[in-house]
Specification:
Elements: E1 4-15, E2 18-30, E3 35-39, H1 46-54, E4 61-70, E5 73-74, H2 80-86, E6 91-94, H3 98-101, H4 108-118, H5 124-137, H6 143-147, H7 156-169, E7 174-178, H8 186-203, E8 206-211, H9 214-220, E9 223-228, E10 231-237, H10 238-243, H11 248-255
């Protein structure tokens, strides 16, 4: 049984009086406990899929056709109050920029408390216990001291771990990770990805993993959907799609990756 299903999902934008297609009739499904990677170059429409789940569209953008079902309910057509009740609880998000996603004038402890209150946790002592447990779950050193710090006193990797702790605090059924490792160095990226995978498997959470990094997708995702110009041009098991791509665009993406060994040649550029 699928947890998240897109059927003909179409998003359009009004730009200067013209209607511009953004997503073109997407069809995909994501089962509980699976990781689906959305890969493609910038502007392909990957992040717009995440925005469609939350229905947080930029001005002038709207879903004009199709459905996006979560656990049998259409996220596009359901009442806004019902959808808001799912967000942060059954559906969680890990944003792209860890250093700007946290409130700079609130301590980490205050932000964790705010999130846990929304999840129904009450009582000062109980909130402190939940906050310490959340930071310990993402392997942050000195969780008690971390609660008193502000985001600018943490590294990018530490801020991302705090955001991951918040995302998994309510044991969500679906996590949308939108380029969650883009701002991190390679070593920190590996640690953060391993942590996400650990929590995902522990809670049997479905993850929609949005990335432009094919190598990262190969190591993280069970399945991969390749997006180009708002459409899914190839979808299937990650190993099958990335090791034996059938669509010319997928092959072009692989050619655009610099080789780790061998001669240093000019990278292939997509026309």
């Amino acid at each position: 049984m699928s947890l998240l299903v897109a059927r003909g999902l179409t998003v359009q934008a009004q730009v200067g009086g013209e209607v511009v297609p953004v997503l073109r009739g997407l069809n995909f499904s994501l089962a509980p406990g699976r990781v689906l990677g959305l890969v493609g170059e910038s502007g392909a429409g990957k992040s717009m899929v995440g925005r469609s789940i939350a229905q947080l569209m930029p001005p002038g953008f709207a879903v004009t056709h199709g459905t996006l079902e979560f656990n049998g309910g259409d996220l596009v057509g359901m009442a806004a109050e019902h959808r808001r009740g799912l967000l942060g609880r059954e559906i969680a998000f890990i944003p792209q920029e860890p250093l700007t996603a946290l409130n700079p004038v609130l301590t980490i402890g205050a932000q964790l408390d705010e999130h846990h209150r929304r999840l129904g946790v009450r009582g000062r002592r109980t909130l402190r216990e939940y906050a310490l447990a959340a930071l310990a779950a993402v392997h942050l050193p000195d969780p008690r001291g971390m609660l008193a710090r502000y985001p600018h006193q943490l590294s990018g990797g530490q801020c991302q771990r705090v955001l991951i702790a918040m995302a998994f605090a309510g044991r969500p059924r679906l996590v949308v990770a939108d380029e969650a490792t883009t701002a991190l160095d390679v070593t920190t990226q590996a640690h953060v990805v391993a942590l996400m995978r650990e929590l995902q498997q522990a809670f049997d959470t479905a993850v929609l993993f949005i990335t432009h990094d094919l190598r990262l997708a190969a190591g993280v995702c069970d399945d991969v959907a390749v997006m180009y110009a708002g459409d899914i041009v190839e979808i299937g098991p990650a190993a099958q799609v990335l090791q034996g791509p059938r669509h010319p665009y997928t092959r072009c993406l692989q050619l655009s990756n610099p080789p780790m060994t061998g001669a240093r040649n000019a990278l292939y550029a997509l026309p």
